[in-house]
Amino acid sequence: MKILGAILFAAALVAAAPSLAEDRVTLGWGRMFSNDALGDGHDRWRTGGYQVSMLRGVSFDGRLPSRVGELLEFRAASQILAPASLTAAAPNDRRYAGVLSFGAHTQFDWRGNDVSLGGDLVITGPQTGISNFQKWIHNAMGQPEPLVVANQIGNGFYPTVSGEVGRQMAVGEHVTLRPFAEAQAGVESFVRLGGDIVIGDFSKGAVMVRDGVTGQRYRAVESAHNEGLSLVMGADVARVFDSALLPSGGPAVMKEGRHRLRAGMHWQGKKASVFYGMSYLSPEFESQPEGQVVGALNLNLKF
Questions:
Q1: 3-state class of 23 per DSSP?
Q2: pLDDT by residue (tens digit) across 38-84?
Q3: Which residue in 119, 121, 162, 250 has a CA-CA distance of 20 to 30 Å to 6?
Q4: Beta bridge partners of 275
Q5: Would you kindly state where each structural domain of the chain is located, as residue ranges?
Q6: Host H or E run for residue 279
Q7: Distance between CA atoms of 89 and 85, rounded to whole angstroms?
Q8: C-alpha triplet 202, 219, 70: angle, nearest 5°
Q9: How many CB atoms lie within 10 A of CB 229?
Q10: Which CATH number applies to 2-301: 3.40.50.720, 2.40.128.140, 3.40.190.10, 2.40.240.20?
Q11: Which residues make beta-bridge pairs with 285?
Q12: Angle at CA 198, nearest 5°, toward 195 and 200?
């Protein structure tokens, strides 16, 4: 995994080198909000997250560039992980974790495959301010204060590199299949294989970004305004090697295998679009009694 990390980190550095002299513009924004309140309704485990992307480049004509670094994505994400009870965690449940990350990624075409490479600085612990923010929200809504934050994952900085390779395959006029392989080294290190199916025109001529929690993909740049409904489905399996969010020697023992199942619906109108999806996340530690269902929401309005 160290060799893989070095390769991906080098690729991320190379991605920033080309085209610096050219005038870049903001090509689009993408975002995804996830919360188990939109899924199974429980406030636990992978309980909430938000990811936002800004895409910069010279232009976009509906096809990824062949040059690494020509299209750049600047990404920020936040996430809350928690035990099943926020007031009295079970001895073998996972510890609370507040996570922030900031990074840069590039997407490009390589021999007909769409490739994403990049790096993020992942920050954990009370220094993120996430636990204080959740306390404030709970107090404002008259809910019990989350006492488990006193035993949260500590302050840390984790340089993290990741890459994904996928291939779009049309299996019908309005049906697209995209198998993919993904690898990450850093705050959590894993390899992952999976696939996504789109029935409709949601992803046609668009730059798509994958949400780290749910696995759902969101649109960050569009070249064609395709109105109507689209159905998306996907699944993946991962082999996890280590995780700073489930540290060795902690009360929760990390499971090496994970899988996700997801489905969602995207509606595109003239001046608005909305996506809602649900993802099943399998247990991530040995004593986790069951998986969970997390909802994902994306809403865009143009005035």
A1: coil
A2: 999 998 999 999 999 999 999 999 899 999 999 999 999 999 999 99
A3: 250
A4: 266, 298
A5: 2-301
A6: strand 272-281
A7: 5
A8: 120
A9: 12
A10: 2.40.128.140
A11: 254
A12: 170
